[in-house]
Records
---
Amino acid sequence: MDAVKKILHTAVRSSMDWLEERFTIAPDDKDMPWQDQSSIPRMNEYPAGKQPGGPNELRWQKVEPVERPGICRLHQARVWCLRASSATIAPDPHRRLAIVFDKHHRRLRTPASPYVWAYYFKHREWRRKNRHTAHLAGRVALLGNFVSDSNNYYHFWADTIADIWYLRQSLPASEMPERYLMAYTGVSWQRQILELCGIREEQVIPLSAHDWLNVDELVVPIRPKGSEDQPSWQADAIRGMANWVEAKHPATRRLYLSRADAPRRRVTNEAQVREHLEPLGFDVLTLDGLSVREQQTLFASASVIIAPHGAALTNLVWCKPGTLVVDFLSENHLAPCFRELAAQSDAIYHPIVCRSVDDTISGFDSDIEIDMVQLNTALKLLMFKGASAHAFERTRLAPEALHWDNDGLFYQNTR
């Protein structure tokens, strides 16, 4: 009986794979207008001296890399704005992922495009006879479309806004799209980011405003996105879009960014963390209520930033070179995105892997507990004057040989 089930399962899977291949088209297919951008450097191509590594290197989450980045253009494209489901603690009624089809009803293969036949069987809306299909005239770009979360500060900057920068580097001004199809809910920080980047809100078409679209010409950037595969120009793209000019005032503040007001990945022993950090001159705060410009100013003023892993650390791109960063990560969610942004922003980054307090919840959602010994060791290693975390790993200095004084740290030779 088990052998029969195995044979049937293999046959069904083979049939599904054949159907998927039959009705899927690669963005660089010979029938598609394609602009290759493979020469743009990839993530993990660090400048000399910045390569993370060694025996203590973490097992960061990885995804299949985008082998051939570029820009695909489809005439008479069809877009299914699929309602995405999620088990996240912070539900979002606007969650959508766009599935793109060419005029021959073949699905465009993109990095986050789902295995479409599974969605055909799961969702009935594509089969509705009375479904409404809107028409978008002119040239429209599909931005982001890697995660369905429409209210994530990191993905809005790194996937959506950076897509516009990518298009501007690749296309002449005369071929730039007039409008942008994106995950957008119109919250204040999204409007502020659009204003900073010179994008008019009337140019934005929210994915959640439609179920089906016919588009005269759809421009689709194909490139590394998300928190596990970033291009080496990510930080430069964000700064470039925001027209960021490095602040002239000195960076002296020590910040601990709390997630006490967040629905997930909170620190269960945060009172203990605060008691440890406040005597060392750390300001404990959340970013709730701060405008995007205020967040830029705050991070530009910081010499040390300590925070549980979260979208607030996207603001590392505004930091001055040499800023010290401690990132508390769940043992079940080792996303390298802020390691990459720190490296691209010349910040000194130190990850601390923390225990997930609830194994029944995903590592992305579960609260964490910070090991105070690890925290104290990281502080001593990172804040020792003129040295980086990697330098200390090489020299193997014992944490007990480092001591606080009123101005920072000093090294006591115990030999």
---
Amino acid sequence: MNPNYFKDAPIKELSNKKLPTLGFLYLDYVLRFFDHSNFKGWPNKIETVTYHWKNDKECFIKEVKRKKIDVLVGNIPATAYETFREIALALPNVRFIPDLDTQFSNKSKENVTRFAWKYDLPIPKTYIFYNEKKSDEFLKKCDYPKIIKKSYGPSNYGGYFVHKVDSYQEAKTLLDEKQYNPQYIQDFVPMEADIRVMLIGHKPVCAFWRRPTDGGWLTNTSQGGSMDYMDVPKSVLDLAVKVSKAANAEYWAVDVAYGKDGVPRILECATAFAAFPYIRDWIAEYIMWDLSKGRFKKPHIPMFNWEELSKMDSSILRTMRHITFGKYSPSSDGDCYGAKHKYFGENEVYLHLLDQEYKIKRLTLRTKEEWPSEKWNYQDNLTQVKNKKSKLIVSSDEDTEIVETQESISKKDLKKLLKSVSGIGEKKIKKIFDTFENKENVIDVLDTNPHILTQIKGITTKTVKRLEAIWQIFKMQ
């Protein structure tokens, strides 16, 4: 993406001719998040481009270029994510909303976890295996209960691919039946409920509790859980804002586990989520405001609007469109009677003042890829070589535990081994560690897909073959 495209700057509102050409990004067999009715008042034609799966990548790229689209709006499902990373690279002057780095978490629960690890966001302690033998060894020794989830696939599971296991035998039976790859395992966190928070421009615009049935642990409404919208804690809203900013998201949803210990932890986050039509209208208003440099008004969405709207029947909310709110303006009567307040965090506050604390903000566009697939597509990269050893990756918002699943080697000795390969010197070793960040990730690459190293400038296929041979000798010692 061109870093100067629609960069926030003090320029005049854009005329019809200067407005970017919008296109809706649609995919066959995938529900559409936006349509023309959401972008009420946009004066120019909005194009549509549909991806037809199979070998449609080049046709899609050509159609975007032919229609001279500047901005493509729409979510990418997990199964098309890697293809659209390639499409985005082939269209460097087209802005994707949300961009593909923001949609990184849409692809899998593993990606959500890696996103959370990078930005030090609280999540339940998580274990990821790409090796069944090592997974089995871990499950024999670990404490129970554990949660096992399907990592990759459609985003809206409704709880049907989330399992609680109370013993090794339950875990083994489940994984033998489901054949999940990777094996994605979390510590079970006793929780009061989970909370879904939706945000636009990093501002919470809707939030609700999902509570389990008596004696149950799943909070999904499809599994019998209940919903209510009242008194979502400040700690949860603040965490959701932090996560949205880390993702650099125009719009975003976060599922937060509110533990019985009072600690909020992230369960899921993505740009793909179910939302009432009026929320999609608000997102479109935000996008139009952003792209037009203020020609369209920034939407005003008061804090805790969801508490009042939730008093209406959901069947009405599903049909309501283009809801607007007036901003609070004090009057002689309003000063005494009209300013609603509530307890929020440690203080009693006026609701209209919270709109100053939680503002809708414009994004700063990225100037380079944050999650390039050659490094972060573990789903494909770590399954290319069957039965190879792979590291167990463990992280936590509590204690971090690293379990070694390959021969122990220090960072110093690993660098010495790399340097012994003809064609790899100090500068290339530095590039390797700068690219893959730590010793464990470098070992993962050597164990599973060393060809990835050719992405680093100066490392050739011949060099990688030499390195593979030396690495195999090392592992046999």
